[in-house]
Design brief:
The complex is a heterodimer of chains A (146) and B (110).
Chain A: E1 2-10, H1 16-25, H2 31-56, E2 64-72, E3 75-81, H3 108-115, E4 118-121, E5 127-133, H4 137-145
Antiparallel strand pairs in A: 1-2, 2-3, 3-5, 4-5
Helix pairs in contact in A: 1-2, 2-3
Chain B: E1 2-8, E2 11-20, H1 25-37, E3 42-46, E4 50-53, H2 55-70, E5 74-78, H3 82-90, E6 99-100, H4 103-108
Parallel strand pairs in B: 2-3, 2-4, 3-5, 5-6
Antiparallel strand pairs in B: 1-2
Helix pairs in contact in B: 1-2
Classes of the chains: A alpha+beta (146), B alpha/beta (110).
Chain lengths: 146, 110
């Protein structure tokens, strides 16, 4: 099974919540999947969109963000691409160290890496791909036998 | 989504209905700062009706906690469900905030 969504957003932070709900509403196939979508995917897609709009596109309202989501039987993949020059994700500091913990920002990539099964950037650094593995028949059978 | 402010004695309670994310964090920040400016010093942010929080939402809570502390006040959190609590644990923010299991517990010894 495969389901695909492709759309573009204006570079407007106010669009993020509705975009995330739009994607989640079209990807939920069973209770087990819904559970992982509820927080993990919502938070990470929101992070990726915010990073693209704020840092990638530099809050430029003339730029756009492209979203490509593919739901396979066992996984959900979302690619978010901005029009910026890209960034080096290896240069992002660990927000959990004692000296960074009180900082206001810097937690987005950390959350994505911990809540998704895979996070990867293209070479340019302007496109992030999020992969979330989803329970298949195992999850459904657990629900059925509960 | 909305941030509803109410008072319980000396404590200002902020209910976060919906999401606390990059698109609305400034609204929460301004509401709490307005209360701080008005002389309130004890804040309880309650997440009973919250869907999810992103890193900007976590960041604004850190920012507000610092500002409240600078005025010799305190900002506490309450009613984080398992999913939301995970976000605080992953970012070690559970070590920075006093987190009550319920609104009542959060208010009890404030």
């Amino acid at each position: 099974m495969q389901r695909q969504l492709v759309f573009e957003l204006p570079n407007d932070l106010k669009c993020i919540e509705e975009a995330v709900e739009f994607v989640v509403s079209r990807c939920s196939t069973c209770e087990e999947v819904a559970r992982k979508l509820r927080v993990n995917f919502r938070v990470c897609l929101s992070e990726a969109l915010a990073n693209a709009m704020i840092y990638g596109n530099g809050r430029d309202p003339s730029k756009r963000v492209r979203v490509e989501v593919v739901l396979y039987t066992g996984s959900l993949t979302a690619r978010v691409t901005d029009e910026g020059d890209g960034f080096d994700p290896t240069r992002v500091q660990d927000p959990c160290t004692p000296c960074n913990r009180m900082k206001v920002g810097g937690r987005g990539l950390h959350l994505m890496r911990n809540l998704m099964d895979e996070v990867r950037y293209n070479d340019r650094g302007n496109s992030v791909t999020l992969v979330l593995n989803l329970p298949q028949s195992d999850g459904l059978s657990r629900e059925a036998s509960a | 989504m909305a941030f509803n402010i109410s008072t319980e004695g000396e404590v200002t309670v902020v209910d976060v209905d919906g999401q606390l994310i990059v698109g609305n964090r400034q609204e929460l920040k301004q509401k709490v700062l307005d209360e701080l400016e008005a002389g309130r010093r004890k804040f309880l942010v309650d997440f009973t009706n919250t869907g999810y929080i992103d890193s900007s939402g976590l960041g604004v809570l850190v920012s507000l906690s610092k500002k409240v502390r600078e005025q010799d006040g305190e900002l506490r959190l309450s009613s984080l469900n398992e999913d939301l609590r995970t976000l605080f644990e992953l970012t070690k923010l559970d070590t920075l905030f006093r987190i009550a299991d319920s609104r009542e517990e959060g208010l009890s010894d404030f």
